[in-house]
Amino acid sequence: MHLVALVSAIDHVCCRYRLAALRPWLEQAGHSLELLPLPRTWHQRWLLFRQLRGANVVLQRTLLPGWQLQQLRRQAARLLFDFDDAIFLRDSYAQKGLHHAGRLRRFISTVRVCEAVIAGNAFLADHASLYADPTRVVVVPTCVDEQRYPVRSETAGSRDGKELVWIGSSSTLQGIERIAPLLEQLGQAIPGLRLRVICDRFPRFQHLPVICRPWSEATEVAELLQADLGISWIPDDLWSRGKCGLKLLQYMAAGLPVVANPVGMHLQIVRHGETGWLVHSAEDWLCAVRRLVGDASLRARMGQAGRRQLQTEYSISCAAKTWLTLLGELLLAPVGERGHE
Asked: Which end of the chain has fewer beta carbons closer than 10 Å to its terminal beta carbon, N or C?
């Protein structure tokens, strides 16, 4: 089957991790994948959709206006929808609050007319199943190609074991900024502690030195390998339950133990006491970080356990198997068999 994926941008993180990384596996099985940036103007979209007549289309994340969705649905032989965020909501930091009637309305319309809906986690799949046939909804976690990450050597990390790392975008950096008082406490309590931030924007703290590292796809792996343990914090809300835990997976691929709060996919990804710790209070955070920075062998054991877990549950090969099963089922189904329109 030849798939045409309409994405927000070829280099967007969702396209890179959820679609582009699958291409070798799809091609090996006899399928092909073409990635096309979704035009911004309605006229350019109208022209593109006309060219997609009879195509097998994967629409990623974008919630089209009603008339555009109808046109794409008419032209596509099969229409699939892939998403990895609670796009039917505003994000955690929106001043107007989480709920957005227009986004939800577009989301409902989209999942109803697709042959298949591919959700990044069970929370997202459950929401899609409220409005679409649950048999058309499949969970494909955001996965990481561990082959990009060399097996962690004994010389990896910092010299003193006191370097935390956080990787993400400027939008999710707001999570780190929300726990600034906690991070300041860590910096005061653990002499020499520092935070490596791999991003396009950087926070500043009074008591916790920040090592600023501009994000680059070419350097992100090497930057992660310089650190000793990865951290993540997300707000306890519906938007966060839709997040797919990519930064945790990157830490695990790099052989790093992780410390995170117990929200959303953090609960599923982190094996408490085995690959890292799920922590609630400031005291919990301090105990976990202090123990890890003081015990190199513990960091190594947890990092190795995390990498093994990634290989068995969150590697690209895992995602590819689910996709190949889905495509096989679609090929057996009559073209044009859709959800409720």
From this structure: C
pLDDT of residue 341: 46
Superfamily of the domain at 146-313: Glycogen Phosphorylase B; (3.40.50.2000)
Is pTM, for the whole model, over 0.90? yes
Q: Could you tell me the end-to-end alpha-carbon distance of the chain, in angstroms, rounded to an integer?
A: 24
Max CA distance (Å), the chain: 65
If you compute the radius of gyration of the chain from its CA atoms, what whole number of angstroms results? 21
Q: Which of 25, 234, 47, 239 is nearest to 248 (CA)?
A: 234
**CATH superfamily, domain at 2-143+315-332:** Glycogen Phosphorylase B; (3.40.50.2000)
**Predicted confidence (pLDDT) per residue in 230-249, tens digit:** 999 999 999 999 999 999 99
Beta bridge partners of 99: 89
What does DSSP say about strands 163-167 and 229-232: parallel, antiparallel, or unpaired? Answer: parallel
Which among 303, 281, 289 is positioned nearest to 259, based on CA atoms?
289
Q: Give pLDDT tens digits for 152-186.
A: 887 788 889 999 999 999 889 999 999 999 999 99
Of the CA atoms within 13 Å of residue 212, those in its CB half-sphere come to 7
CB atoms within 10 A of CB 237: 15
Which pLDDT does position 336 carry in this prediction? 58
Give every strand in the sheet of 194-199, ordered side by side.
210-214, 194-199, 163-167, 229-232, 258-260, 276-278
Q: Are 208 and 195 in contact (CB under 8 A)?
A: yes
